[in-house]
Design a protein that fits this description.
The protein has 811 residues and is α+β, with helices and mostly antiparallel strands. The protein contains 20 helices and 43 strands. A ten-stranded antiparallel β-sheet has the order 1-2-9-10-11-12-19-16-15-14, covered by helices on one side. Strands 6, 7, 8, 13, 17 and 18 form a six-stranded antiparallel β-sheet that branches. It is globular, with a radius of gyration of 28 Å. The chain binds alpha-D-glucopyranose (GLC) (2 copies). The site of one alpha-D-glucopyranose (GLC) has 13 residues, from helix 8.
């Protein structure tokens, strides 16, 4: 069942009922100012940091009710309604929400009044703009009222939701004309405030939530709206809000338009006040002056659309498969940008008050956006590397505002260092910018011990060389990619963090997954050493890689698939010897991606085992059989009920690894089958089962053992976005950036047909036509570049050209 449809021409998903299975959200904002906006106008806004600079409130533990947002109420006689249906839930005569790229549009109609909202955040200013157009669709005059509504958060979102003994006494606002200023804590250590304004003379305002709603009412029954009159209260403490009242007369057929602006203002420390107690409003006035007319709004909206069109044009495919076209050209790239902006901080499932940015998450997200914004990828790599320790290990997380490592969680996740190589290699393959390797980068933010980035990569690599266990496989530490495989933790008491409890490292527990990573990213590091002319380092690294391959073949192979790990007793994890958790997805994907077993048939065996044992119609599960009881020696993974999350859920992030691995052995049909199973557009028809947004990936889909098999959770902020884009663009469609130039080597289903890709790479536009006359799954027979046939798969890079036309014919 569907709750809407894709409108590809407008790059929108059109939601046709407010009653979606879960709130379906969108993200507005590209730089510092962000809004989460659901299909019923729920959501919240923050500046730079969702925890420390939260502008409007979110209600916690409220995902499905979704009862707080930026609302517009319309009072038409005795009927009170909202164009996005919430919070009054008055049944509408018609409803539509269009989530677009960086904006959302809502149209609600009730009793012949149409209210159309367009909301977005301009690329270059810290402000959210909403254009509200009210139209009288009937043939008699209408006198109606429009009320806006936002509830301020007192900045620190964490403190705001729990420290009432203080917070209910500190709320402060000012009101001048049509602008409401939220200035809580501005009198002391803050130099920022928020504004909410409308470009018209108002008929009243309210800044006290209790006055607006009336005692014991929720936002669904606001007393002042029912009364039809705001009371012009200046809030003092309690719950400050902002609401404007506009009395609107509409002749038959007439429309009136208002522009609302919600902005963030920062003043210099010595320029905070206009006079004692009165905030300096110069910057706010200047910001609001930019958006005073509908034309101003429309112009800024056009600029935003151009900004996105330009970004998304960097990779464009035309094929006969509308799902692939839509996901690649629009939604998958869009989700990659959102994950870049948010990391794992703020969604309807990530609370925005929890973890900072993950070291491994950020490095992997980069794989998906580096072609879109290479300059920002460069900066991100330096930021991440600056939190590394001198021995090559890394803080697991860091705070975006300070860019410092987070010592609460510390280090000891032994896959982390290798992801830095993955991200840096992707950046250089994309841009050719080797100067980054010579940048001086601190350790743990201490510039006095800085070395080149290349030296950081060496230490990443050597960290693994120096931390091996009894089978010459890498020690796992607190966990590897699978945060819940905690082999040194042994936690027996509720509340202990599986990630932080116990010794960070044991001398025994080893990870075959990290071994696979070491082979893959070790080779990428070796290639960088070679590029810098350091052939001695290249040879040293490749020798270490060979040793690791030997270790995997000796003790990391279980007969039909790769072993997952060795626990602290040196017992196998993910082996046929185990009673539960016999096969795991991660080492099958990573080892084959690294090329291990491709020559001796083990890769094929491992992937056949994945298909036989882990596959479901909704995707490939992380492990089987699910753990039915808590295993002290395995940690959090066994804490989840069977079928959920890391305990046999379909963890979407690693499904593309299997798909990529299939392309490594040339099985395009199967690679694409795996791609399709979790691909949002392909499963739009089962939205009532899947439940999360049909235009983006979710972190997890419940596995076969779960009660709600097929149900997704944690949409939007997941490494799935980057890895799927990597998979489809670089491996299935086969346009892979190498250090020398773009390589063309597709691995598609036999029946996929011919296709065209436009790819902007290092400033050159490549028009690549791929022909598959004999319906093969892999292999390029000939490559013609601007009419000249070249040997191999790589298009020689020539910066003097602006446009290059390529024809690749498959075998
Ligand atoms: C979450 C984490 C990621 C981890 C994965 C598997 O997605 O953000 O870092 O690799 O879970 O545990
Ligand atoms: C990852 C995992 C999750 C685990 C968490 C711990 O996000 O997906 O299951 O609880 O890490 O930080």
């Amino acid at each position: 069942m569907k709750f809407g449809y894709f409108d590809d021409n407008n790059k929108e998903y059109v939601i046709t009922t407010p009653k979606t299975p879960l709130p379906w959200i969108n993200y507005l904002g590209c730089n510092d100012f962000f809004t989460l906006l659901s299909n019923t106008c729920g959501g919240y806004t923050f500046y730079k940091d969702a925890k420390l600079l939260r502008m409007t409130r979110y209600r916690y533990n409220d995902t499905t009710p979704d009862t707080n947002g930026k609302y517009f109420y319309i009072k038409d006689g005795d009927t009170i309604w909202n164009p996005g249906w919430q919070p009054t839930k008055t049944e509408l005569d018609s409803y539509e929400c269009r989530h677009g790229i960086g904006y959302s549009k809502f149209t609600g109609v009730k009793n012949n009044v149409e209210a159309a909202l367009v909301t977005f955040v301009p690329a270059d200013n810290p402000v959210e703009l909403t254009k509200v157009t009210l139209t009288n669709k009937g043939d008699a005059k209408k006198d109606i009222q429009l009320f806006s509504y936002v509830e301020w958060c007192l900045w620190n979102a964490d403190d705001d939701m729990k420290n009432y003994q203080r917070n209910l006494s500190i709320g402060e606002v000012e009101v001048v004309d049509s602008t409401i200023y939220h200035k809580t804590e501005y009198r002391e250590r803050r130099n920022h405030y928020a504004v909410y304004s409308v470009n018209a003379k108002i008929d009243g305002f309210e800044t006290s939530r209790d006055e607006f709603r009336g005692a014991y009412n929720g936002p669904d029954k606001p007393a002042a709206v029912i009364e039809g009159k705001l009371h012009n209260t200046i809030a003092s403490g309690w719950y400050p809000i902002a609401s404007h009242q506009l009395n609107v007369s509409l002749e038959a057929g007439e429309s009136k338009t208002f522009v609302f602006a919600l902005g963030y203002i920062e003043n210099a420390e010595d320029d905070k006040w206009e006079k004692p107690g009165v905030i300096n409003k110069k910057k706010a006035d200047a910001l609001l002056a930019k958006y005073q007319t509908t034309e101003d709004f429309d112009k800024a909206f056009d600029e935003l659309c151009k900004y996105w069109d330009n970004l998304l044009s960097k990779f464009h495919i035309k094929s006969s498969d509308e799902h692939v076209n839509r996901m690649v050209n629009i939604w998958n790239q869009y989700q990659c940008m959102v994950t870049f902006n948010m990391s794992r901080s703020a969604s309807y499932y990530e609370t925005g008050i929890g973890r900072g940015m993950g070291f491994r998450d950020s490095c992997q997200d980069l794989l998906g956006f580096v072609h879109l914004i290479p300059d920002r990828a460069r900066e991100r790599i330096i930021d991440i590397a600056s939190t590394q320790f001198q021995d090559g290990s890394a803080y697991h997380q860091y705070q975006p505002l300070t860019k410092k490592g987070n010592s609460d969680i510390g280090s000891g996740f032994n896959d982390d260092p290798l992801w830095l190589i993955a991200g840096t290699s992707a950046y250089i393959r994309e841009t050719g910018d080797t100067s980054i390797l010579k940048e001086m980068v601190p350790y743990d933010n201490d510039m006095s011990v800085a070395t080149t980035l290349m030296e950081h990569l060496k230490r990443s690599f050597d960290y693994i060389v120096n931390h091996k266990g009894p089978h010459d496989l890498p020690l796992i530490g607190r966990a590897d990619w699978n945060d819940c495989l905690n082999l040194n933790c042994f936690s027996e008491h509720p509340g202990e963090s599986f990630q932080c409890f116990g010794p960070s490292e044991g001398p025994v527990a080893e990870s075959v997954f990290i071994a696979g990573m070491f082979v893959k990213y070790g080779r990428e590091y070796a290639a960088l050493a070679k590029l810098l002319g350091d052939t001695a380092e290249e040879a040293r690294v490749l020798a270490e890689v060979d040793k690791m391959i030997a270790a995997i073949e000796k003790d990391g192979w279980d007969g039909e698939w790769f072993v997952r790990a060795y626990d602290a007793y040196s017992h196998k994890v993910g082996s046929k010897e185990c009673d539960e958790g016999q096969i795991y997805i991660e080492p099958q994907g990573m080892c084959v991606m690294a090329g291990v077993g491709v020559d001796n048939g083990n890769a094929e065996k491992a992937l056949n085992s994945v298909k036989a044992k882990l596959d479901t119609k909704y995707g490939v599960m992380i492990l089987q059989p699910a753990y039915t009881r808590y295993h002290l020696e395995l940690g959090e993974i066994t804490s989840y009920p069977p079928g959920y999350k890391e305990n046999a859920g379909i963890f979407c992030h690693n499904n593309p690894w299997i798909s990529i691995a299939e392309t490594c052995i040339g099985r395009g049909d199967r690679a694409f089958e795996v791609y399709k199973k979790t691909c949002p557009s392909y499963i739009e028809d089962i939205s009532e089962i899947h439940r999360t947004e049909p235009y983006v990936y979710s972190q997890m889909v419940a596995g076969a053992d779960a009660k709600f098999h097929g149900e997704a959770k944690n949409s939007w902020l997941t490494g799935t976005a980057a890895w799927t884009f990597t998979n489809i663009s670089q491996y299935i469609l086969g346009i892979y950036p190498t250090l020398e130039g773009l390589s063309v080597n597709p691995c598609t289903p036999a029946a996929f047909g011919d296709f065209n890709v436009t790819r902007v790479y290092r400033g050159v536009t490549y028009n690549i036509e791929i022909k598959n006359p004999n319906k093969v799954q892999k292999g390029v027979a000939s490559l013609t570049v601007d009419g000249v046939e070249v040997q191999g798969n790589v298009i020689p890079f020539d910066p003097s050209k602006k446009v290059v036309n390529v024809i690749a014919t498959m075998k």
